[in-house]
Amino acid sequence: MPNRSSPLVLVLLTALTALLLTGCPGGGAGTGHSPAATAPAALATVRTFDLPQEARETLRLIDDGGPFPYRKDGSTFGNLEGMLPERERGYYREYTVPTPGERDRGARRIVTGREGEVYYTDDHYQTFRVVLR
């Protein structure tokens, strides 16, 4: 006689798998962050060759280890906005992407993660896109 799982068991297994793959809702306990900050929405993507030329040049400098044109390049990005996946302090580094015509650092940045992740923002951390390399 074949072993047949009940529909309830299948639903529970599917729900558990979904929770494990997406993270449990209501997280953030003991982190000092709200649950919204610990569970960022899915980020859009951008291919490297679709980035502005200045961003591609900044990526080249990152790959080469510098030198960087701005003193703050390579400094810790704190992810205070909670837009990127939550990681320990020091996990993310930020780099300036020059903006033609700007007198200061402007709003564009590349943020890298310790495990090789690359993110691009052109609106000073309001939104991020995952860079597909």
Automatic annotation (TrEMBL):
It holds the Pfam family Ribonuclease. It comes from the Bacteria. GO terms for molecular function: hydrolase activity; RNA binding; RNA endonuclease activity. Residues 1-29 form the signal peptide. Keywords: Hydrolase, Nuclease, Signal. This is Ribonuclease N1. It comes from Streptomyces tirandamycinicus. The lineage of its organism: Bacteria, Bacillati, Actinomycetota, Actinomycetes, Kitasatosporales.
